[in-house]
Amino acid sequence: MSTNRTRPAGRHDRRGPHSVPPQRTRVPRRVRPHHWFAERLLAVLSGQRPVHWMLGHTIGEAYDQLAELAPRTPLRSRGARPVIRMCHGAQPAPGVVEACASIAAGEQVRAMAFRLEQGTDLRWRCAAVELGGERLQAPLPH
């Protein structure tokens, strides 16, 4: 019987615990702003969250666009809960991200486009939202 206590009984190779290569620690990826906003917009437009959840995260016409869209819950589905299949962003200028996402719910797939702008406080805010190629206009002042 072996008296070597660095390996299990019945093991005949010479590798011990010290010969295992060190494991790399995985650094968590930072969520990109367009992914974060896509999730929030989906939650509002599918009726999972109220539109005022986006207060402070929108500028300009975007909140009015959401307020007009949200009551109709255009991304709500009868069956499966809607999920983001894909989300891409492009940076046409510093402090601006133009993004698109495809939203799937069962067999139905919808498109969503939005624009993010970074303020002087370095926070990103949604400046415009479009669904399925149809841009919503803010209501005209009376």
Features:
alpha+beta; 142 residues; Nuclear Transport Factor 2, Chain: A; 5-stranded antiparallel beta sheet; 2 helices; 15% helix; elongated
Summarize the structure.
With 142 residues, the protein is α+β, with helices and mostly antiparallel strands.
What does this structure look like?
By secondary structure, this protein is α+β, with helices and mostly antiparallel strands. The chain has one domain (31-133): Nuclear Transport Factor 2, Chain: A, CATH 3.10.450.50. 15% of the residues lie in helices and 30% in strands. The chain has helices spanning 33-45, 62-69; strands spanning 83-93, 96-105, 108-118, 124-131, 134-135. β2 (96-105) and β3 form a beta hairpin. It is elongated, with a radius of gyration of 24 Å. It starts with 32 loop residues before the first helix and ends in a 7-residue tail after the last strand.
Number of strands: 5
Helix count?
2
Q: What is the SS-derived class?
A: alpha+beta
CATH class descriptor name: Alpha Beta
Integer count of domains:
1
The outline comes out as elongated
- Enumerate the strands of the largest sheet in spatial order, edge to edge or round the barrel: 1-2-3-4-5
Largest sheet: 5 strands, antiparallel
CATH topology descriptor: Nuclear Transport Factor 2, Chain: A
The appropriate CATH architecture is: Roll
How much beta, percentage-wise?
25-35%
The rounded Rg comes to 24 Å
Poorly predicted parts: none
Arithmetic mean of pLDDT: 85
Distance between the termini: 94 Å
